[in-house]
Amino acid sequence: MIYALARPLLFALEPETAHRVTLRLAEAAQRCGLLGLAGQRLPAQPVEVMGLRFPNPVGLAAGLDKDAAHIDALAGLGFGFIEVGTVTPRPQPGNPRPRLFRIPEAQALINRFGFNNVGVDAFLENVARARWPGLLGINLGRNADTPPERAADDYALGLERVYEAASYVTINVSSPNTKDLRALQEAATLDALLARLAASRERLAERHGKRVPLVLKVAPDLDAAQITAIADSVRRHGVDGVIATNTSVARDGIERLPQALEAGGLSGAPIRARATQVLGALARALAGEVALIGAGGILSGADAAEKVAAGASLVQLYTGLIYRGPALIAECVEAIAARVPA
Questions:
Q1: Is the pTM of this model over 0.70?
Q2: Are 30 and 318 in contact (CB under 8 A)?
């Protein structure tokens, strides 16, 4: 109800400004104790995935809290887990503004942020300040000025730096907003990257005395051969999970809407069906051997339940929160609970 009243005011602001204001308001509400009851209204729906026990299967997708600066406030909304980032080894400003666009007629966003973030050192300082004891995913990317042939170095460095602080680590090779990043999804390149990171993870597990799950985040703009190759590589190198999916470069069905042809990744309702198709194809290819996290176009509880029906054990929200507000979290938890036998 509160968000329904606030949304017109927020939507009157430039989108990136509204993003920043919303996070500050969440911080203020958390300090005043106004978020504390959000999680208590959710039904108990614990789920074991990747060797971790999630209090509920609905999480926050990476991108909303790029710098891990708002973990406690966001946790107060009732998420079962939170993913922060994308973080790169060195700080970078991202692409020039404007770089975030609303398409309200389609309940969609386009962003071309370009991994703007404070860099891994400041990022980890923010993580250390958070008091929330829940499950925290950390999403890794490469710096824009790192040559593509050195991309694996950035991911390996990121993995080493965040390993101790993370409940799981996501390897983001699917953002369309860093030049040549999606080329890392090509079969031979991805196989080499995952081989290196799997070996690094084994060394880190021995050093830290814990095995942190590795998750791969993929694009919705994949064909059947690419999906098969990704599934084979993920299985071969012991990757624990796949997030399906990131944003899309396609504009199917929204081409005539204002701002629909802005460059960047499309998220929200227009990509729901395609993201679910990719999720389902991965589920069939992986046959339960690797956990799946459904993301992309979840605007209702029914959308979340659809992801679970397609093979997801967990789901993540981002754009849906912009349009629906925090009530969407409880709605998704309840819809999944209604579908999954206790």
A1: yes
A2: no
